[in-house]
Predict the 3D structure of the following.
Amino acid sequence: MRDWLTVIIILLIAGITLDAFRRMRQARRESIRLSKNAALADKEDVRESSSEFPGGGPRVVGYRDEGDAQSITETLKRKHREKKTTVGAPNRIPEQVTLNLDEHVPMLMDPVDSPEDDENEPLEPQLGDLANLDDSVEAEERPHISEPEPTAKKKTKRAEKAMPDDDQEAARAPDEVLIINVMAKTGTRFDGQSLLAALMSADMKLGAMDIFHRHLREHGDGPILFSLANMVVPGTFNLSAMADFQTPGVSLFLSLPIPDDTLDDDELDGLSIRAFDTMAGTAKALAAALDGELKDENRSVMTQQTIEHARQRVVEYERKRKLARA
C-alpha cells in the first residue's frame, strides 16, 4: 500500500512540474509574439514619419498614377500662362464705344460746382487796381531801357535786404522764455485803473504790440528786459479804455537772449539774471498791490522754490552763453 502511495505522489509531482513547464513556454511564446507586433508597429511609424527628421525625404501621403501627375502638371502650366496673360490686360486694345452726339460733354472752361470754387474764385478788382492797371499798360507801351547795375552794388543791396530778415528771425526765435503769471483770486478780476497804477509804480511802459515793457534804464531807455501782456486774447491794452477794463490776470515773460548790441561789458555782465530778478520782484509787487496770486507757466501756484528753480535756469543759460562767447 505504501508503494502505491509513493507512486501516486511521484506522478502528481511530475504532472504539476510538466504543467508548470507548459505554462512557462506558452507565456514565453505570447511575449515573443507581442514583441514582434510592437516591432512591426514601430517600423511602420518610422517609415511614415521618417520625412519629419532632418535629412529625410518628403513624407509620402499617397501615391498617384503617372498619367494623373502628368495631367495635373499640364493644368498648372496652363493656369500659370493664363495668369500671365491676365496681368498684361491693361495693354489690350479697348473696345470702341459708340459716341452719342446729343450727350453733353463737359469742357475745360465749363463751371463745376465744387467747394473749392469759393477758394479759387478771383477777387473783383478795386478802383485802385484798375488805376494801377492803366499805369501798367502805359508802362508796357513805353519802351524802357535800364542800365545794368554793377555786380558789387547788387550784392550790397541784396545783403542789406537780407540783414533785417535775419534780425527778425532771431527776434522771433528766443532761446529761452520764462513766464510768471499774476492772477486774480477765484471769482474776482483786476480792474483797469488799479492795474494801471500798479504798472506805473513798477516803471512799466506801454510800447510795441500794445503791451507793457520794462526797460534797462528808467523812463523807457535801453533794451527791453521783460514784457507784460493781458491773459485775455489778444493780450493787448488800451490806455483810453482802462476805466472800463477788467482782466483775470496778466503774464510777465522774459525772452532770452536780451538784445545787447548797445550795451557795454559792465551792463552786459549778468544782465539775464538781473532781468529775471527784476521780473520776479515786479510780479510780487503787482500781486501784493492787486491782491492777486503768483502762478507759473502752467498756472499752478508759484512758490519761492519754483522761482528759485526758474532762476537757476537763467544762471545756467548765462553760463553757457559766456562759454560760447569765449
